[in-house]
Design a protein that fits this description.
With 314 residues, the protein is mostly helical. It contains 13 helices and no strands. It is globular.
Length: 314
């Protein structure tokens, strides 16, 4: 509903390159304020209860926090070539290092993974010569950064071990194991209700029905409050069935088609970056309908509305 309320105003607004860059700048400044609170939390001052997820700032869930931080890092990385979002190299560098510390000091594997995937693309889009060397270099640098963070490396190793256990032995109770179980449940719901799904908001009820019918294993009592689709795609095909699959495919197609039609190369690249960030990130949580993602999503929409005929010298 919030997207339907705000998106028309974004679409009707007369966008140009300068206004779009200003929106990106405000986004990074806002995330810098969140970084400030994260630094305070790292020194032991409790701003919000992060439940041991690290210095998240004011965003109290590691998936959303790390995703937003990763987008800030990707925009700043792009701006090392573009030099228009944050004009000062020193300020840009300090912000970049601050966000890099914050993202690897939290439990946000989603944002860390997005950064690792998309940072080489940012460099690839901006480097004319030796463009196949620089993405490799970017991966190595990010890999070194992860290795320097004991918390991050332990999280990734744990995730790898849990995933390996699922491949070899099937479901077991763990973070990755629960995600596997929720995904499996979603597929069962889709198979049993292929046309219109189990209904909006009915994933949780149907999940416990599947447990009662012994189609999936029982989960611990304290997990019951967290039961739900752990991916936007699982939510769509389990709760909406084939209609959900068609709608999300149309959304992806329409978004990509709009982005590639933008004439300004840099705005098109920003739009492509947001596009990949949003739809890859949707694998990790139901972010499509989370209010914390509404701002970057609307910036993404705005890229398709930048007036191609705007003269940047005016």
């Amino acid at each position: 509903m919030m997207y339907l309320m705000i998106a028309p105003f974004i679409s009707a607004y007369i966008w140009n390159t300068e206004r779009y860059i200003l929106a990106l700048r405000f986004f990074i400044i806002g995330m810098s304020a969140n970084l400030f609170f994260g630094i305070i939390e790292a020194f032991g001052v409790k701003i919000i209860d992060t439940h041991g997820q690290g210095p998240l700032g004011l965003i109290n869930f590691h998936i959303y926090s790390s995703m937003l931080i990763s987008m800030s890092l990707l925009l700043l990385l792009y701006d090392f070539f573009y030099k228009r979002i944050i004009s000062s190299l020193s300020v840009r560098s300090v912000m970049f290092l601050g966000f890099l510390w914050q993202i690897f000091a939290t439990q946000g594997r989603t944002g860390q993974g997005l950064l690792l995937l998309l940072a080489p693309l940012v460099i690839f889009l901006n480097i004319k010569k030796y463009r196949y060397i620089y993405p490799t270099l970017a991966i190595i640098i990010v890999g070194i950064t992860i290795s320097l963070s004991s918390k991050a490396i332990n999280m990734w190793y744990t995730a790898y071990s849990q995933f390996n256990s699922i491949i070899s032995g099937g479901y077991h109770y763990s973070d990755i194991g629960l995600r596997y179980l929720f995904a499996k449940s979603g597929f069962i719901m889709f198979v049993t209700h292929p046309f219109s799904g189990v209904g909006i908001g009915q994933f949780r009820k149907t999940f416990f029905d599947l447990i009662a019918d012994h189609k999936i294993p029982e989960v611990p009592q304290y997990v019951h409050g967290f039961v739900g689709p752990t991916s936007s795609y699982i939510a769509f095909f389990s709760e909406f069935g084939s209609l959900g699959v068609i709608s999300i495919l149309l959304l992806i197609y329409a978004s990509y088609k709009k982005i590639i039609c933008v004439k300004d190369k840099n705005i098109r690249n920003f739009g492509l970056l947001f596009f990949l960030w949003f739809f890859i990130g949707s694998f990790s949580d139901t972010i499509i309908w989370r209010e914390v993602i509404v701002v970057p999503f609307l910036i993404f929409i705005s890229a398709t509305n930048v007036n191609a005929g705007y003269n940047e010298n005016n």
